[in-house]
Design goal:
single chain, 49 residues, alpha+beta
Length: 49
């Protein structure tokens, strides 16, 4: 995802995840907060690290 953003010249973006993809966007936001503007998580709640 960051490679695509870099090639388009976008520094920060919103991340959207559904079901188990929600865990992916939460972890992405925790590991790279400088690149994630906001998180949209659908279906499951945030459970922490």
């Amino acid at each position: 995802m960051f490679g695509l953003l870099d090639s388009l010249g976008i520094e920060r973006a919103a991340s959207v995840g559904h079901d188990w993809g929600s865990n992916v966007v939460w972890m992405t936001a925790l590991m790279h907060p400088e690149r994630v503007e906001r998180v949209v998580s659908l279906s499951i709640m945030y459970r922490g690290r």
